[in-house]
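pls design
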């Protein structure tokens, strides 16, 4: 009988050690996942900030005042009249006249 008690003790010790190792491995995997999640959230926040800055820069460059200044810097002048091309039949609607540089 003492022999079966020793075997039971060894089996219990093995099961306990296996359980502890399993819990340790699970805890390690969860900690690694937590670090990965933190890194991904940080990267996402940085990319969101960069997207916001780029959107703001694009909106600024598309503003009518900025476009008018850039056009004037390139020597363009505003037209006094406009003509439109109807794509369905190619007809020109209106009469466009050559723009001239205003003298100041």
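designed seq:
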């Amino acid at each position: 009988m003492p022999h079966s008690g020793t075997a039971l003790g060894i089996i219990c010790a093995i099961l306990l050690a296996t359980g502890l190792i399993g819990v340790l491995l699970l805890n390690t995997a969860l900690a690694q996942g937590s670090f990965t999640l933190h890194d991904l959230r940080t990267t996402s926040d940085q990319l969101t900030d960069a997207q916001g800055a780029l959107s703001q820069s694009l909106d600024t460059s598309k503003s009518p005042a900025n476009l008018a200044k850039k056009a004037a810097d390139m020597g363009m002048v505003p037209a006094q009249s406009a003509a439109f091309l109807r794509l369905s039949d190619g007809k020109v609607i209106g009469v466009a006249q050559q723009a001239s540089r205003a003298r100041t």
